Amino acid sequence: MSYPELPQPAPGEVLLVCTCYEDGRALWGGLLDEIGARREDDRLVLGGRGVRLRMVEDSGWDYLHGGNIPALVPGTSPVPPVVVLADIPVVYGGGGPLLVDLAAIPGRGVRVPSARLGKILADLLGGALAFDDLVRDMDRCGMYQGDGGRPAFPTPTSTPTPTRRSFPSLPSTTTALLIRTCYDDEAGWQALLGELGGTDADGWVGADLDPDEIDVEQYPLTALVVDNPAFEGLQPGQVPALVPPEEHTTLVALADARTFAEPGRPLTVVDLYDCPGQQAVLPCREVGSLACNLEIANMDFYEFVAEEGIKPWWEEA
Q: Which residues on neighbouring strands pair with residue 138, listed in sequence order?
């Protein structure tokens, strides 16, 4: 799938991109009223801070995801630090707009309250806030300073040791990807694959399941395995920009150092949709249920994000 390139914003201007359309018509939901802006042609001026949003519409961006944004930024400079998306959660769910990072870790996202968009953007552009600050202070629903509870495993903004910023593109698939990012425990990796049912000749786990043998309480994971040292050290926030736009991957699960050090072989699962780059840490036996529920739109990603101080529902007797 090929998306149109984004326009180059003027200095001090932030793009507000509509990614939800009906019969070619842009849908904004209630966002334009909620952000408290005055309109000047295709620009919106937010509050007393003077932040200018440039509204851009193109039905070619229908269903565009946050992770797709960095590849659509014009090659000219300067690169804008952030883009704002009015996407499906905004239009149909009443959620806050999605801010997509283009500077520190391109492609990751955080939602912000609509009424505070002007101040947050002004602080980002002025240097009073960094995108890392937004990530560190988001709730388990991916909302900056939201009231959805603190995640038990906050999404990392940095790593103990430097990691490269450039990784290859990930394989294109409509299901899930299981990516090995730690190469310190070969026996542990093989044990993980065995626990997931082993890989077939094409490198898939769970591809040839017998429907009569499936435990619906712990639905098995079907995923394409990516065992390539080029992805060593890959972090959750870096994942969304690596997912090709041709097919809509359900989720990406990382087998990282935690996987081989803790009971239950937990995987770090990365959201690609509502809050790109947000992580949920789950025992490997639960990741298949997350993928299944996302595929049939039965549950949202945040419902699998453990809340700090509260026993997660999948551990209850």
A: 144
Q: Is residue 139 within 8 Å of 154, Cβ to Cβ? A: no
Q: How many CB atoms lie within 10 A of CB 230?
A: 11
Q: Which two tokens stand for residue 264?
A: 């239950």
Measured CA to CA, the distance from residue 53 to residue 42 in angstroms comes to 8
pLDDT tens, residue order, the chain (317 aa): 689 999 999 888 999 999 999 999 999 999 999 998 888 887 999 876 778 999 999 999 999 999 999 999 987 777 789 999 999 999 998 789 999 999 999 999 999 999 999 999 999 999 999 999 999 999 999 999 999 999 999 999 975 544 556 899 999 999 999 999 999 999 999 999 999 989 999 999 987 776 656 665 678 899 999 999 999 999 999 999 999 988 889 999 999 999 999 999 999 999 999 999 999 999 999 999 999 899 888 899 999 999 999 999 888 75
Tell me which DSSP letter residue 199 carries.
B
268 burial (CB, 10 Å; 0-12 / 13-18 / 19+) is buried
**27 and 88 Cβ atoms separated by less than 8 Å:** no
Q: Can you give the pTM of this predicted structure?
A: 0.94
What is the distance between the alpha carbons of residues 234 and 180, in angstroms, rounded to a whole number? 9
Opening angle at CA 174, ends 171 and 177, nearest 5:
50
Give the C-alpha distances (Å, rounded to integers) separating 33 from 29, 53, 97, 124.
Answer: 9, 14, 13, 22
